[in-house]
Amino acid sequence: MKINTLDNLNGRRDVFEFMQGDFENEHWHDSSIYLTTEDFDFLYLFIEEVLADFNYFGPNSVNQEQWNQIAINACSLNNTADTQFLRFFKRIDHWVKENFKKHTCFSICGP
After folding, report:
1. Would you say the pTM of this structure is higher than 0.85?
2. Are the C-beta atoms of 109 and 23 separated by less than 8 Å?
3. What percent of the chain has pLDDT over 90?
């Protein structure tokens, strides 16, 4: 599982973009992180539990309370088979926490 930046997408555009703040009709920000569909789908299981109206193709706004619930659900995994996912999730969670220092939400836009 890998978190991509704009620099290492290598022209790939079939990704989920996590962008700071509200979506403002612009994509491909340097400050965004990008997940392949395959990697996002692991996280999606926890997102859909909290965001019932989540639009897979986006855009979606996620506030801090919603993210905290997603994190609680994702981090409740406790067997060794989930180690790779938990490392992956913690790297996303770090980006999200940095986002919340400046913004009240972040946006997820699908492929």
Report:
1. yes
2. yes
3. 67
